[in-house]
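Data deposition worksheet. Section B asks for the primary sequence of the deposited chain exactly as it was used as input, without tags or linkers unless they were present during the calculation. Section C holds the resulting structure in token form. Section D is free text for depositor observations; keep each observation to a single sentence. Incomplete worksheets are returned to the depositor.
Section A, Depositor: J.P.
Section B:
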Amino acid sequence: MTIPRPEYPRPQFVRTDWINLNGEWEFEFDDENKGIAEKWYEKHEYSQTINVPFCYQSELSGIGITDFHDIVWYKRKFLLPEEWKNKRLLLHFGAVDYRASVWINGQFVCSHEGGHTPFHAEITHVVKDGENEIVVRAEDYSKELDQPRGKQYWKEKSESIFYTRTTGIWQTVWIEAVATTYLEKVKMTPNIDTDEILIEYVVNNVKRNQQLEIEISFDGQLVAKDIVHLTERKGSRQIYLHDFNVHDSGRLWSPEHPNLYDVVFTIKENGCVLDRVESYFGMRKISVENGIIMLNNRPYYMKLVLDQGYFPKGILTPPSDEDIKRDIQLTKEMGFNGVRKHQKIEDPRYLYWADKLGLLVWGEMANSYIYTEDAIRRIASEWQEAIERDYNHPSIVVWVPINESWGVPRLLADKRQQAHALSLYYLTKSLDSTRLVISNDGWEHTKSDICTIHDYEPDKETLKERYRTIENILRSQPGHRFIYVPGYEYHNEPILVTEFGGIAYKKSHWDGWGYSGAENDEDFAERYYKVVSAILESPLVQGFCYTQLTDVEQEINGLLTYDRQPKINPNIIRAINEGKDYKRIPCEVK
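Section C:
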């Protein structure tokens, strides 16, 4: 039987000793919430099967229903390789929506809250020779609006801008074997101004006579090697890249030149290898200087597309690694240099391909919809986990903890909600000072590094006049919203229009909606030209994010259909994005 999503799920921290637990699991709905009382983690006859890592609502799960089932259980057997007998064993979950509890052989091993971020448990002490059993209980309260849920709808059928829910396991489950001492995590911070990489590490169970070797190479050639004599669990190393300055910009990371350095971390004890981890980093800098967005110390115009990361058969889970790669390739083919991943903390494999192929990413939190103390706690906790997970990806250049005042609906008047938005800005900055941060994308900013505006005006002349002067921009109220919360002001931040367009064009067999409508290929191209050229011609706007990459369920405002077919020739989109004449390019897709 073919294992779904068989590729290594954590591409920036790779070990060779691992087994993939995706595939067929036993499955059960627990609508009466009786599984704990009846000890289903010890014994229960499950009535269904499910194809992990796809949620039960998806077609690829083998179930494919959207009824409310807020508590679900999973079970499967597994065998461990004989050579793992003297190893420590770590059980990993890429993501389980929303709250998970895990048992091995009837013994509780861990729980986790947060639907988009990974967790793991050491299971060395509970496994046995021969067959083992893993049980997972997931609860995901469909109508709980202070739960960070992104675009997942709290009604049974999707509508408007909201889509089908994801409940339970939706990213890869795997086990890896490690030694008694192993590398727990690393944090890598590039500095292109000093030609250095700062590497911070955490080692589990440090003992005497142990060393951490760090080998950095570029294109197969060794660049630097450092040896740390371990005395403490945590430490750091600043490593000078002697080759970097010699090659000048030739080894910087950018969408046009996605150069990556490879890193191998090896822990040794008395010359014997205990642990080996492969990783990579990019030498990249994002900054704002005198009101100008700079990538690697040079002005950079961001041409982004909004990407929801939904798939017809997998919902939040891409059907395959190739599907992830193809989304990025199509994005680049149409002349975009980045994406704003919308209301979804994306699969690490997406970020890997963005790093490898060269695509800027704005990382965005999946928001809740109401403001409560539980919502504050949940968002702050999960957002910190997301930043830690994704910190090392050079593709990520901007963090977006809140979108369009979701979860803070009274931001204009409620000082607590203003403080919450402000606190998320500073929390993000305290965790990552190297990237730009938006307090509230689209409108009602408190403090943000970029002034971002959502504007679905379809008329070119109106857009040109609106974005002609700073006074016009700050006075405008697209969507009838203030750009800044009263009491907060514009301080020469770069201006980007981070949602616009949204042109509906039906190229599939179902009806849907968008912010304006096209009748045929030529009309679609003309409408796209009008909104994009208006933004490009602004003397003040430094980038844009077009809505959106693909159709999603009932939305038909994508440049691609939901099954990723271009609606018109991608070369037309590319020409318009580059400010070139597009009218001699045929509309039809070859």
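Section D:
The two ends are 36 Å apart (CA to CA).
The longest strand covers residues 182-191.
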